[in-house]
């Protein structure tokens, strides 16, 4: 499996059947992202989404210091955030070019959310800026107790533009707290993140958090892939629509999904007290 997933800035492993482990691999730079990395990220999650041998995914960062320190500001200052051409180009045309770059960046991060498989992020150490964008796009967030979070964008002169401001309020359901951390760029710790509902579990160490993520992913991967993928799709749809819209979409979705053989396999395994097996999807 690992041979088909070879990337320069990410390690891909398969610690359990049907479970993929994606590791950001730039530890000497605190796993800070530059353009080639977010392009790879998009490719990875697009490919894993349609891989029939994958049913759940975990995302972590290499090294002991950081899940990711966010955007590589030095690289960005020579690229996305560069003002070198601003004096030589029409402002409207410059804006069009920037919009395209920002949209491309957003699309790459959104592949985590759009991935058909559930994605669990296990964070540790510094988890700043882009770390919040990435983890907000995931389905489940857990962390080690040493994790230090921050929405850092106002500290570098911009509004967060890759997903945090759109997704974080819907995750925690508390606009006052979201504005607190986004307008100040202050650090907050694992216990505060747990208290507001940003993460669902806190572990003593990074290794414990990863082990917990693998265990959770393996449990999800043992379920019907039709049911798991449908549940993720319907939850994400319902989050962004009215209750009535959600109910209607669910009825349409399940009019096809309920015809799966997974239902009879699951029911029979319960009656026969055995572990069910499901075909690849």
TrEMBL record:
Pathway: Lipid metabolism; fatty acid beta-oxidation. The keyword Lipid metabolism applies. Belongs to the enoyl-CoA hydratase/isomerase family. It comes from Aspergillus cavernicola. Gene3D superfamilies: 2-enoyl-CoA Hydratase, Chain A, domain 1 (3.90.226.10), Lyase 2-enoyl-coa Hydratase, Chain A, domain 2 (1.10.12.10). The lineage of its organism: Eukaryota, Fungi, Dikarya, Ascomycota, Pezizomycotina. Keywords: Fatty acid metabolism, Isomerase, Lipid metabolism. This is ClpP/crotonase-like domain-containing protein. It comes from the Eukaryota.
